Amino acid sequence: MGKVYEATVTAPVNIAVIKYWGKRDSALILPTNSSLSVTLSQDHLSTRTTIRASPDFTIDRLWLNGVEEDINASKRLVNSITTARKLREALEEKQKQDGIPAESVVPLSQWKIHVCSENNFPTAAGLASSASGYAALVSALGTLYELPQTTSELSRVARVGSGSACRSMFGGFVAWQAGIADDGHDSLAVQVADRQHWPELQALILVASDKKKAVSSTAGMQTTVETSSLFAERVRTVVPQRMEAMKEAIAKRDFETFAEITMRDSNQFHAVCLDTYPPISYMNDTSRAVAGLVHAFNSARGRTAAAYTYDAGPNAVIYALKSDMRDLVELFTYCFPREDSILPDAFYPDPFSIFDSPEQ
Ligand code: ADP
Ligand code: DP6
Ligand code: CO
C-alpha cells in the first residue's frame, strides 16, 4: 500500500430566510435570484465527511450514510470533484514554477479519492442535507488539497454541487449573490455578519416528517421556472427589495423586521410552488398548524416575537430571540406532544470548524 492522504471535516446546514428557488443555468447552478440564510450550529445538524487520496485507488468512490453511490451517475458530484481537482492541479503547477523540486510536489490531483460522508439528520427531507453535504465535500477537498482559495472562492465549487451549499461554507448570516456572468464567477457566497453579531437569535427545528420528499428541490424549482407566472414577479420585484431590507434588519438586529420578512418570504416561496403546474406542496397539515400557532403567539405577545420558515419539505424552522424561546418550546411541546423536535439551544461563535488531519 502506497501513501494515503486523508482529511476529515464537518459542515453545518443553513436555513434560508430569503429563499433560493429557480436556476438560470442548470449545469453551472446559477440562480434566478440572490438569497440569504442563517447557518445553524453544527452541534445538532451536520455532515461529517472524510476523503482519502492514494495512488493505489483505481476509481473515485463515495459512500453516503454507509451506502455506496455511483459518483459518475451524478453530474453534481463529478462537477464539484473535477473543479476542486483543477484547482489542485494549478497549485501543483505553481509549486513547480516556484522552484519546489518536482519530487516534493505531491501529485494529489492525479490520484483517485474515496469519500465517506454521514449526515446526522434526515437526508433529502427538507432540512438542507444537500447544503451541508456539498459544503463538507468541498471543504474536505480544500483541506486535503491545501487549496489557497478564499472561502468565497471555494463557495463557487460547493455551488456546482448544490446551490444552497455555497452558503454553508460560512457561519453566521450569509448571502448568495446571484451574479450576472454567464460563467458563474460572480455567483458566490459572502458573509453578511458573523455569528457573534447577534447571539440572542436562536433557531428551533420541528421535524414534522423525516421522510424523503416526493419532489426534489432540483426538480421542483425547474418546473416552477417553466410554469409559474407568480415566480417571474417574485424574482423581478420582490426578492431584490427583500434582500436589502433583510441585510438592514440583520445589521440593526431588528428582530421584528427580520421575522416578518422571513415569514413572508417562506409563504411566497410556497405560494409559488402551488402556482407551479402540476402544483407542488411541501407543507403538510402539521406545518400549517405550526405557522398558525406562531401567528397566535405573536398576537398574544402584541409583537412579532417568532418567525417560521419552511424549505422544500414540511419541517419548520422557528427563529426567535433567546428570551422568547423557552415559552415557544413549551408551547410547541404542549401542542405537538408527539412530534420529534430537535432544539439547538444556542449558536456557537464558530459554527463552521474544520478538523484537518492530513496523514502521510
Ligand atoms: P435537502 O432538503 O435535504 O437538501 P435535496 O433534494 O436538496 O434535499 O437534496 C438531497 C440530495 O443531496 C440527496 O439525495 C443526495 O444526492 C445529496 N446529498 C445529501 N447529503 C449528502 C452528502 N452528505 N454528501 C453528498 N451528497 C449529499
Ligand atoms: C427551498 O440547493 O437543495 O431550500 O441547487 O438543485 O441542489 P439544488 O437545490 P437546493 O435548493 C434549496 C431550496 C430551498 C431554499 C434555500 O435553501 O435557499
Ligand atoms: Co437541498
Automatic annotation (TrEMBL):
One of its GO terms (cellular component) is cytosol. Its EC number is 4.1.1.33. It comes from the Eukaryota. InterPro entries: GHMP_kinase_C_sf, Mev_decarb, Mev_diP_decarb, MVD-like_N, Mvd1_C, Ribosomal_Su5_D2-typ_SF, Ribsml_uS5_D2-typ_fold_subgr. Residues 203-360 form the Mvd1 C-terminal domain. Pathway: Isoprenoid biosynthesis; isopentenyl diphosphate biosynthesis via mevalonate pathway; isopentenyl diphosphate from (R)-mevalonate: step 3/3. Keywords: ATP-binding, Lipid biosynthesis, Lipid metabolism, Lyase, Nucleotide-binding, Steroid biosynthesis, Steroid metabolism, Sterol biosynthesis, Sterol metabolism. GO terms for molecular function: ATP binding; diphosphomevalonate decarboxylase activity. It is an enzyme of class 4 (lyase). Gene3D superfamilies: 3.30.230.10, GHMP kinase, C-terminal domain. It catalyses: (R)-5-diphosphomevalonate + ATP = isopentenyl diphosphate + ADP + phosphate + CO2. Residues 11-189 form the Diphosphomevalonate decarboxylase-like N-terminal domain. GO terms for biological process: isopentenyl diphosphate biosynthetic process, mevalonate pathway; sterol biosynthetic process. PANTHER family: DIPHOSPHOMEVALONATE DECARBOXYLASE (PTHR10977). Belongs to the diphosphomevalonate decarboxylase family. This is Diphosphomevalonate decarboxylase. It comes from Coemansia erecta.
